[in-house]
Design brief:
Oligomer: single chain
Shape: elongated
Strand content: under 5%
Number of helices: 4
Bound molecules: fe (ii) ion
Structural class: mainly alpha
Number of strands: 0
Order of helices and strands: HHHH
Length: about 200
Amino acid sequence: MIPSSQPPAADTGFEPGASLTAMADELEATHHAYLRAVLPEIHNRAVTLADTHAARHPELAPLASLVQELRAELEPHLTKEEQVLFPFARLLDGADAPPRFHCGSIRNPIGAMLVEHDRTHELLARMRAATAGFTAHADAPAGVHHLYRDLAELEADTLAHIHKENRGLFPAAMAAERALLERSAAAAGPDQGGDPACWAYREA
Ligand SMILES: [Fe+2]
Ligand SMILES: [Fe+2]
């Protein structure tokens, strides 16, 4: 089995030496499960609060729209990672040779996920700005205070989630793939490296 890649940097968010499979499993069992549980509920609550308190708290309507945008961004993102990127990472974990995968290099789905992470960062920043750092008005109903606390928790969990992918799983998966390709090129001779087109994406 290929070790989980280059030694993870100190701040990957994972146990040192965690395998690609362990990282993918942990991400699914914690951050992905959390988002799938809370996103629909928080979105529905934000819409209900905006409808109920529109007159005294007009700021709730644009906030509900932002929560809707975040949900629309994140739910398909989770599915793409679970159905494409994480299975690819698990294949690399147990491989003795570069696995064949319909996406080509793992850099392709990683490049797409990095773009989506940037969009999520932007949405979270807009949400923080729209709520004065998740601080509800003193006269806001208890439900609004509760919503803001839950949004602050959602932000913190999602930032940790993205950090673990950008700094833990993604670099480790690219390093594992690179090691397999180099080993395969060495076995085949000096002129038979991987397809250069696979390397078009930036590092995480
Ligand atoms: Fe994820
Ligand atoms: Fe992600």
